[in-house]
Known about the structure:
Chain B: Belongs to the ABC transporter superfamily. Chain B: It comes from Hoeflea olei. Chain B: One of its GO terms (cellular component) is plasma membrane. Chain B: This is Peptide ABC transporter ATP-binding protein. The structure holds two protein chains of two kinds. Chain A has helices spanning 14-23, 26-48, 80-115, 118-132, 136-147, 151-177, 181-188, 193-204, 206-229, 241-247, 251-256, 259-286. Chain A has a single domain, classed as MetI-like (MetI-like fold), CATH 1.10.3720.10. Helix content of chain A is 71%, strand content 0%. Chain A has twelve helices and no strands. By secondary structure, chain A is mainly alpha-helical. Chain B is of the alpha/beta class. Chain B is 30% helix and 25% strand. An eight-stranded mixed beta sheet of chain B has the order 6-7-8-3-9-10-12-11, sandwiched between helices. A four-stranded antiparallel beta sheet of chain B has the order 2-1-4-5, covered by helices on one side. Chain B is globular.
Amino acid sequence: MATTPISHPRAKSPARRALGRFGSKPGAMIGLAVFASLLLLMLVHPLVSGIGPNTIDLRAINQGPSASHWLGTDGVGRDVFARLLEGGRISLLVAVTSSVASLVIGFLIGAVAGLGGRIADAIAMRSVDVAMTLPPVILLLVLASITGPGIGPTILVISLLSWPVLSRLVRSRLLELGQRDFVVASRGMGAGLGHLIWRHALPNSIDILVVFATLQVASAILLEAGLSFLGLGVPPPDASWGNMLFAARSTTVLTNYPWQWMFPGLALVVVVLAINFIGDGLRDAFDPRSEGA
Amino acid sequence: MSEQTDFLSVRGLTKHYVQRGIGRRQTVHALDDVSFTVARGETVGLVGESGSGKTTIGRAILRLIEPTAGQVLLDGTDVTALSPRALRRFRKRMQYVFQDPYASLSPRMTIGEILTEGLVLQGVRGREKRRQMALDALASVDLPADALDRYAFEFSGGQRQRIGIARALVLEPELIVADEPVSALDVSVQAQTINLLRSLQQRNNLTMLFISHDLGVVEYVCDRIIVLFLGRIMEIASSETLLKAPRHPYTRALISAVPGLDPDADRSGQQVLQGDIPNPANPPSGCVFRTRCPHAIDRCAAEVPPLEEVEPGHFKACIRDV
């Protein structure tokens, strides 16, 4: 039989096609634009502005928005705009770090459970069950009493709480993947667990991981805000959206100085919404069934 | 074949699946006490209907599934006794060609990555050397070199199957288990793929187990044929003998079920089997074929018929001589 050259143009890889689908989703692109510009603002602001998040202006306590303080000031004369951006940096730092940590832990445990055989599966899934029963507030109280509240313990708690869900998703994907012929072929060529995880499990659960990561960033921001609002998360004077809301919870502030809680709350809602839109777009992009849509 | 040294020797290979339900527990007999030998360079066909255990034998020999009992000796090494580590090294010598050319190639890897995966796993050093070996393997299955940077979905079923064959051959194995390698392909592509497989087998002096339900294909490719029913061997004979002078009633039924091209052919002598294949979780006592056998007598239910040599190189598992 003759060797026939294949002349049609080179096709894009599966990941590139997913990216192309993502680009054609207006909701996801708006979310990405909003998130990217807020991120840029957070990163650039401390470089160009003279007012830091902890700079106290005693002549302007509980002042409304003005030319010098765009979003007003709080009860000790700190600039709300500067604190809002500082809080965003810390909230995002906590959210992204804890999401990455839970991504790695969740994927590895799910992968060992899904591909490592029956005994490894049993051990891994029991540890998932245990981790799922951890009560967040009590865990944080215990940790805080050992290390004191702070950014580190908050990251640790959020990571410890959120990986089990991912493990379950990854495991069920890999239980099915392990029976597929190309994975059987790989084992038949001498693949061990490490190779199977790196070369087959990872590329074939990348959709789960990307979607989990984005949605997890959003829920970690909320969890951090919740913990900080209870006074268990990021402690003052560091700013976070949660502890800004916490500081503004008295009736006087709620009724008389709305800029002190309205703007952090608004920022929280906008960022979480934007990230969720991005996550939805990614989920659709990785779903081959949405190709025609 | 007995004068030749056995390259592959399968002894009492058994695979049972235990199904646990609430308050009940049943054992599915996928494979029961299967023994046969294959000489080096020989091609042996495994034939039987769906559920007869063809694929289970192929995968159990390569330890892609763990057999419940029995031994597999490949060139004197007991494959079933190898440690996981030793087994991974040993896998270089035995490779599998899959039935479904769509499921057997990863959608997320280029053909180059698929072909070099085994080389990486078997510790072949040097990216260039591996690439060259992949190119050679591609050329041996008549695919162009520019296929290396493409993805599997860009190829047709027949091309994919050739990639699957190239993947098995790139490791330079001595034993190939080909599991219905053409049954998922168009008829026009089947002949092409069969001829390719046969010429590669002869050129590299490969020992091949060829699993199929298509007697015509098996007769063309194989030196000897093993007929399976419900996880047991019914008959073993050379291809010619098996098709011309079958001794087991099941083999006869299989052969007479092969459709001919002539619609007006006389089919009055055709023997059609009644009923379905028995439940492997609850196989019949004695001979597993007796419930569908036109020649069954009471004694068939009483004892498991041994695989006996009826003439040199021709074995059958049937107590009747009909």
